[in-house]
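User: tokens in, sequence out, please.
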């Protein structure tokens, strides 16, 4: 199972949350950034609907798979 961590960091003159090298928008306070990160973490855990996904591999083959809408990551917020 995937694991997603949101870290609260100083960014662009304010505060943001960061995950996987990507920053959120900038917030005026640490508390605002943390509240937004907690909301994002909760949304990641919310189940969705099953769906068919289709993608092309590096060698040009097309693959169709079923994505389980209940296969959600473990999330946490640090900072």
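Assistant: Sequence out:
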């Amino acid at each position: 199972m995937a694991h997603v961590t949101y870290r609260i960091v100083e960014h662009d003159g304010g505060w943001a949350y960061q995950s996987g090298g990507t920053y959120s928008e900038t917030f005026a306070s640490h508390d605002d950034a943390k509240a937004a990160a907690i909301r994002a973490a909760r949304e990641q855990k919310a189940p969705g609907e099953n769906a068919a996904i289709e993608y092309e591999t590096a060698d040009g083959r097309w693959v169709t798979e079923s994505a389980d809408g209940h296969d959600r990551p473990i999330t946490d917020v640090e900072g």
